[in-house]
Structures are given as C-alpha cells and as structure tokens.
Amino acid sequence: MTAASVQMSGIVKKHGAVTALAGIDLEVRPGEFFSLLGPSGSGKTTTLRILAGLESVTEGRVLLSGKDVTNAEPGERDVAMVFQSYALYPHMTVSENISFPLRMIHEKKEEIENAVRDAAARVRIGHLLDRKPGQLSGGQQQRVALARAIVRKPALFLLDEPLSNLDAKLRLETRVELKRLQRALNVTAVYVTHDQEEALSLSDRLAVFMDGRIVQVGTPEEVFSKPATVDVAGFLGNPPMNLIPGGTEGFQSLKGPDVILGIRPSAVRIVDEGVHATVTMVEALGEEVYADLMVGELLVRARLREGERPAEKAQVRIHLDPTALHVFDKATGKRL
Amino acid sequence: MSCAIRGGERRFALALFLPALLLLVITTALPLIYLVWTSFLRIDLSMPWLGGFAGLDNYQKLGNDPRFWNSLGLTLIYTGTTVVLQVVLGLSLALLVMQVKRGQAMLRIAAILPIVLAPVVAGLFWRSLVLAPDFGILDFITRWLGLGSYNWLGEPRLALASVIAIHTWQWTPFAFLVLLASLAALPPDIYEAARLDRANAWQRFWHITLPMLRPAIVIVVILRMVTALSAFAAIFAATGGGPGSATEILNLYAYRLSFTELSVGYGAAVATVLLAVTLAVAFLLFSFRRKK
Amino acid sequence: MKARNLVLLAIAVLMMLVWTFPVLWGLVTSLKTEKDVLAYPPSVIFEPTLRNYADVFRGSQSIVPNLISSVIVSGLTTLLTMILAIPAAYALSRLDLPFRKGAGFYVLATQMLPPVGLVIPYFLILRRIGWTDTYQGLVLVYLTFALPFAIWLLVSYFEEIPREMEEAALLDRAGRWRALWHVILPQAKGGIAVTVIFVFLNSWNEFLFAVVLGGNNVRPVTVAMFNFISLEQTQWARLAAAAMAGMAPVIILGLMAQKHIVKGLTVGAVKGGGRR
What we know:
The structure holds three protein chains of three kinds.
Chain A: E1 6-15, E2 18-28, E3 33-37, H1 44-52, E4 59-64, E5 67-68, E6 79-82, H2 94-103, H3 109-122, H4 138-150, E7 156-160, H5 168-185, E8 188-193, H6 196-202, E9 205-210, E10 213-218, H7 220-225, H8 230-235, E11 242-245, E12 259-263, E13 268-271, E14 275-285, E15 288-295, E16 298-303, E17 315-320, E18 326-329
Parallel strand pairs in A: 3-8, 3-9, 6-7, 7-8
Antiparallel strand pairs in A: 1-2, 1-4, 4-5, 9-10, 11-12, 12-18, 13-17, 14-15, 14-17, 15-16
Chain B: H1 4-38, E1 41-42, E2 52-53, H2 57-63, H3 66-99, H4 104-116, H5 119-130, H6 137-144, H7 156-185, H8 188-196, H9 201-229, H10 233-238, H11 250-260, H12 264-291
Antiparallel strand pairs in B: 1-2
Chain C: H1 2-30, H2 34-37, H3 51-57, H4 64-94, H5 100-110, H6 115-128, H7 135-158, H8 164-171, H9 175-187, H10 189-205, H11 208-213, H12 221-224, H13 236-256, H14 258-265, H15 267-270
Helix pairs in contact in C: 1-13, 3-13, 4-7, 4-10, 7-10, 8-9, 10-13
C-alpha cells in the first residue's frame, strides 16, 4: 500500500442557505498524521465526510494522490473510516464485520482469513472474532472498527472523533496505540477532533477550523506558539490565553489601542512592582495552580509558581512577560 | 455544481420508489377520478338504458334528499361520539392501569383481541351473542337486573347507540394501548420534581400528564377519526344500516345506493361527498397538528 | 390503600372481561348445539359438541374453500406488497429521493381514503375488464390499502437504523444495492416480519371489497360468515364455529406480534395513519 496525498482546493459546501464550508484549501502529505481541530459546527466533520465521499461539494475539487475524486463514490476512493459511533454491523460477528470490506470485492477466502487474523491481532481482538458487536465493551467495539478499517490496507485513513466515546483512561491508552498503528502501517491519516490535547499530541500537522474556514495550518508547536488569529489563541491552551484589549487601564504602556494582546497564564507573574490586581479565586488543578485576577474590569488568569498562594480578595501586583506577548490586530484579528 | 454522488443516489432512489408509486397512482388516483366522473353520470344498473351524462343532477338530488342529510348527520354523530368515547375511556383506563403493578401484560394481551378481530366478525358477534333479544347476554343482564328486555338493534335510537358501542368496544383498546405506552414513556423524575413543587395528584395530571400526552392524544384522535369515517363492516354486520336508516352512515348509504338499489351514479355522488369530508377532516387535523 | 387496590383490580378484571367476552362467548357458543344456544337463561353448563366445527369444515356448508380463498388473496397481497414496499420505504426514509415530501404525503393520503369511494369505481372497472370474482382483481384492490400502510410502517423501522450503517457499507465498497441487501435489510428483519403480519391481518379481515368484488369463485372467509345467516333462520352455533375458525389465524398472528402491535397501529404516531 502506498500512502496517499490529499489535496482539497476551494471547497465550498452549502446546505440551502447555510454555508457549512466557505472555501477550504488543504494539503496532506503522504504518511502524515493530520488533524482537523475546531469547535463543534466549525466544518471539520463535513470536510472529513467530503474526503470520504459521503457528502458532495457545492464547489471545489478533491484530489487523492493526484487523482480527481470529487465526484467519485465512497467505495471507489480507497479510503477507510472509523466512525464516532463505530458503525459496526450489529447482525454480523466481529470477524464478519472485519472481513466485510474484503468480501465486497470478492477477495479469495484464504486471503480474507489471513487478513482478518492479521488485522485483529494488530488491535489485539483475536479472541473476540466470533462475538457480535452487542456483546463487546466500548473499547473492544472501537478496536473492531479500527480492524475493519485497516484490514483493507487503505491509502487514506479517516477518523471521526474515534476516541470520544471512551472513558478518560482508555482514551489516553488508545491515543498512543493509534499513532503507533498509523506509523506501523505507513498510512496517511486524517483525524477529526474537538479535543486540542488529542490534536496537539497526535498530529504531525493540524488545521484549525473556525466557522467553516481553516484559520491556521501547521505543526502543533507552530500553532500553539504562534496562533494566527485571536480566535485560535482563545481556543488553544487550557486554560486558554488571556486576551487583553490594547489600551486597557494598567497596560497602556505595552502597545497602542489598535491591538489585542494575548498572553498565556504561565507568562503572567506576581511581582512586587507592577499593575494592581485583586485575587478573586485560586483554583488548584492537580500540579498546576491558577489564580483569577481582576485588573479593573478585566479578568486575567495567572499560573502560580510553587509556594505562591495568595489569599482570595488579596491585593497583588502583576507583570506580563513582554517576550511572551502575542499581538493581534484589533480590526482583523490577525497576528501582527 | 455537478455531483455524481447525489445523482447516483437519486437514480437509485427513484428506481426503488417508482414501481410502488406508479402502482399506487394507478390503483388509487385513477379510480378516484373515475368515481368523480361517475358521479356526473346517470347509471342505474336496474335500468341500464337510462344511462348518460347527468351533469350536476346527482348533486342537486343530494340537496333535496332527506336520507342523505340524515346519513351525513349520522356520520358526524357516529364519528364524534366514538372518537370522544375512545379517547376518554382509553385515557382513563390507561391512567388506572398505570397504577396496577402486576398483570399489565395480561391486560395488554386482552386488549389485542378486539383489535385483531375482523370488524365484520365483531359486528356479528355483538349482534348474535350480546345484543340479540332473548338469548343475548346483554339482554339477559338487563332482564336479570329487572330493567326488562330491549330490542337493541331493532329500535332506532338503541340501534345507533349499539353500533357506537360496538365500534367503541373494538377500538378503545387501540387508544388504551397507545396512551399506556406514552404514559409509561414519561420520565418519572418530572413527577418527583412536581411533587417537591407541591403539586397534588390532580394538578400533576392537569399540568404535566395531559400536556405531555398531547401529541399522543392528537395522533389517537386523527387515527380514530379516519377509522370511524371509513367504518363499514361492523355496522353492515350488526344492523345493515337499519332499522330503516337509523344507523345508515354515509358509507352504508353509498353502498346501499350503489349495490342494493343499483343506482351507481347517485351512489358515486354520495361517495364523493364522503371523500371530500374525509380529506377535509384529515387536512384540518394535520394543519392543526403542524401548527402546534 | 387496600380498598383502592381492590377497586383497581376489579376494574382491571372487568376490562379484561369486556374485551375478551365476545370472543370467549363465541368459542363457547361454537361448542353448543343450536338448541342450547337459544336456551334462556343462557346456559353455561352444557354438553360440548364439535358438531358445528365438523359442519363448518365438511359438507355443503364447508368454509374450507373460503379459507383457501382468504389465504390466496391475503398471501398474494402480502407478497406483492412487500416486494414493492420494502424498496419504496427504503428510498423514502433513507435516500435523497426527488420530491420526497410530496411523494410521502401522497402515500399517506392514500391511506386515508374511505374504501367506499374506491369500491364503486372498482366495481365498474373490474366488471368491464372481467376481473370481478377473480384473484387478480381482488389483490389489485387490496394493494390500495396494504401498500401505503406497509410503506409507512417500514419507513418507521428503517429510520431506526443509524445512518452510519450505509455510510460504512459504502466506504467498505459494498455499493448501494449490496449495502441495502447485506447491511440494512438484515437489521430491519424484525420490522419486516411485523409488517408482513399486519398486512396479512388487514387483508384477511377486509370485508367491503370482498363482498362487492368477490363472488362465487373468490369468496373470502369474512364474507362466508353470511352463509349462516338467512331471513328464515340463522344458524348461530355454526356461525360461531365459522367465525372462530376464520378468526383463529389473525388471533394467533395478533398474539404473536403483540409487543409490536402498538407500534404498528401508531405508524401514524410518527407520521401517518393506519386504517382498517
């Protein structure tokens, strides 16, 4: 199998008067683990479904490995997909589920058997082959869905929030395994998620979706350290970046009034000399401790260093690390 | 833009749907057009030489036909009373049965029995086993209670009440089953919340149960009306529309005109009116339902 | 508390009695002699006889030919209905069908037509083409109520199957026909079985079309009941036996499909109207 490349250009998707995608351009390189990240309703799932051929486009072209598949049926694209709900066929056994994509092209019987055994072994469900999906746990069903997708050795592997129905611990384990599987099979993967931690940890590169557009494409480091717009800045990071309108009282000295300043909570320091602030709440999240501070009318979050535990309602002074400042144009929201 | 995906799906969908649609159009639309056409003709099978185009004669005749007005009135009474009775009885019984912890399954099975029975058999059973003077069970009960013997199907008013009772007997289980299922599907926590909010049993019924059952009740009313408007076999079996024309609803009148008195053209006019009434009722109910 | 439970129990028992009584009493009557039927007060203790059933199944008054007629008409109607309704319901519920709303509404509207409105034109049409008192004629007319009913019932079952099923099947290279055959139909098996039962039941119980458009060759059992009723004398016990024999199939079917019956009857609950 050769890993496919993906090219989407000028994709517009309209449902009647509603525009779901307002012109998407996207390139995924062969063998890449590529995530589509964004809040719900931002168009990432629609993009994935267009890649799969489950949805038509209003405008634009889709190329897989250089071949125009814009109007190709889903079955003609050499694409496999893991659905959020897994979409296992409830009336078939696990082994029948996994073999289904091979049976549909009348593969030889022994070859099917070998392929099923191999795929099942890769996701460690070899012992479940005779069960029905209804008899499996959520995690096991998820593995069956994976096996059904990899058994056909697709050129492109689509995953629609495949981990969202698993509990937190299993999600972490499966995440690692997913990446290992993708590397071992050397297949291009496009992964849809609204969970930034998943996207940042799994992807080689990712695209951030907002309101039916791609606002930024890059490696996780690039996107995280240099968000392209105010919206991306406000979406990424947990807790997200503080956004301070330029000219806010106390911060006038930093930049003019036509900008929005972004600063991560870790770059906000409590110091002896600086802007006056009132502590409204101190929130301990395991290892990290955050403080909500009011500067005038503005809420600023700061990540506290070890030993720092200001009391609620205490008066403190803060300082923003000027090297960690992100500056955005107030009018366009673009990074300056 | 062009979409082979959707185009392929549309062709596939049409290929699957068209055979059924074509057959349905041929078997329903054409005969109905023919019905309306027939209503403008003079067709009397006992005097075939009199046939011909009659224009609106049949409809003019309707206006001056007391039997027609009688049957139209009977149709409205029959439909109205049976629907109201079914909903009220069905809802009361469903509410009662919700309180019964065990044996609900038995009741549900018992309720199936009238529904699966052919209406013509229901009519015959009632006519012979329940309502027949001298050996019917109901007559036996009234006599036993000292109320005397009645000619249940022979006396005009009693006959109308009897056919209404038969229809209500056969179809109340339907309302009961649907409403029972809807009641059982209501979330218990809102009743707990209402209790904490100090609503008493009556208030809980009025402010929670009834509004939440509304959609189910509306559906029951629509379906029951349609069934009542097309009722035929049970009345045919029990009274044949009689005595005289005491239970002759429009269905029976159109049937008797066409196939007993062989005046098919005039029967077609009556059937056309019935068709219009049914469609109007259905349309009203559905637009009412959509509004809510 | 105790008294209330007793009242509830009494009402429940009364309900069961009222609903089951005519059938149970019919069964009892069918085991009586004509003389016992007319006894006053109605006798509960009597010597049961199978004479009526023997008369109903053999000899000049046998309803066996009528039962066969009913089986043929209902069976053919059910078969044809399912062949046409399954694909149509699938297209209506799951696919991008042109004019889907209008098509759906038409199917729904046909279900509400009063049968008297159809029986008159059919009487004239079938007489002209010589199809009265034939199986093809009656089956054709039965399709007018069976087909829309089956389509709407099946739509509600198809809609319960998650949409990802076809999508997964399409991605698995099944194509549309095989997606329908291998993935959707097996999952709709239960619904299809229930629909078969209902269509058969409705066809079996039909009376108006049968009495007008049937005849001596094709005379379903619902019409044959009237063999036992004449102006001079009604044979109540034999009528009861014929009714029990004629209704046994639908009663058994009804009890079999008991759990699904509410759903079947409320097809309209979601969108339509069932009629009988």
